[in-house]
Specification:
Helices cover 32% and strands 17% of the residues. Strands 1-2-4-3 form a four-stranded antiparallel beta sheet. It has a single domain, classed as 3-Layer(aba) Sandwich (Ribosomal protein L15e), CATH 3.40.1120.10. It starts with a helix and ends with a helix. The chain contains seven helices and four strands; from the N terminus they run ααβαβαββααα. By secondary structure, it is α+β, with helices and mostly antiparallel strands.
Amino acid sequence: MGVYKYLQKIKRSREDIQFLQKQREIQWRKERAIQRIERPTNLATAKRLGYKAKQGIILARIRILRGGKKRPDIKKGRRSRNRGQRLVMGKNYQAVCEERVSKHFVNLEVLNSYKVGQDGKHYWYEIILLNPQHASLKNDKELSWITTGKHRGRAHRGKTSAGRKGRGLRGKGKGYEKARPSVRANKRRIK
């Protein structure tokens, strides 16, 4: 097994790491909602999603309120059988976080993100951001694609992994014919 496999294994099993996570969350609650950070909390996940310790790659942690996924109660009139059903949100929390961070760091592009914690009130995500104007990224074989102009505003257009999940584009092949170009576009198509 490689180093990052061991890191993932340790993170899942150890009780002292769970205690450390609680201490982190106490500290994170005191910070601003969007906080720039020096290094990733979960190195194995960050590396898997494209993070590299080099110039032009920036990390930010964002705190977002949980809740708002239940339909509001009917105050007047007849109670239908669907009154208690859950409201299916158009976007997941992760995609909303990516958009907020993208709006905060105007000159940077969102590469990817991952969840680092949650309590009864908040979720925390870490967002990997890239500076498309930086020379070190222009010379990088794996990340130079983001320096072209057509990748502007990836998070707002649902082009990140979390955004694609919300758009129903995670799968491919048989059974996903109606998912592209989008579920909505396919429904509106004249048959």
